[in-house]
Amino acid sequence: xxxxxKEFNDNLNKAISWTNKLxxxxxxxxxFYGTVxxxxxxxxxxxxxxxxxxxxxxxNISPYKFSHYKxxxxxxxxxxxxxxxxxxxxxxxxxxxxxxEIGFTTHDGGMIVESQCFFDESDVPPIDTWFYLESKxxxxxxxxxxxxxxxxxxxxxxxxxxxxxxxxxxWVK
Length: 173
What we know:
The protein is an alpha+beta fold.
């Protein structure tokens, strides 16, 4: 579990509400999986975090710097509304938490293709799903980014994880 459990849970509740709002009228059969959860695009060091080409997202800054994720997450959390309730007990019915190990990417296009652009060119989950970040220096990466994946999008992530060469994405139990 995260270092600050209250912050983790508060941010998770905001992410659940936020992703529900963004995906409310999403066309799961014909929709653009790359844009549904990329409606927020923070400015980091004077640059938009990513560039969109229709449904295809490419980072404008390095996806290997922990500080870029921290600054982006800080900006998006401010935009999310406070929630007056807690989804915590009912999570399995609503979706799952995904951890993404920052610092790994193949840029081979496998994950972006398999996920129908849900993951971006750098193999990173969409920013509107992000809710918590942990600094974690080890042999495999520089940090863990926690993302909320609503139930209807779980199949896309599951399918894509088969092409995750570095196994940087894992479901949190």
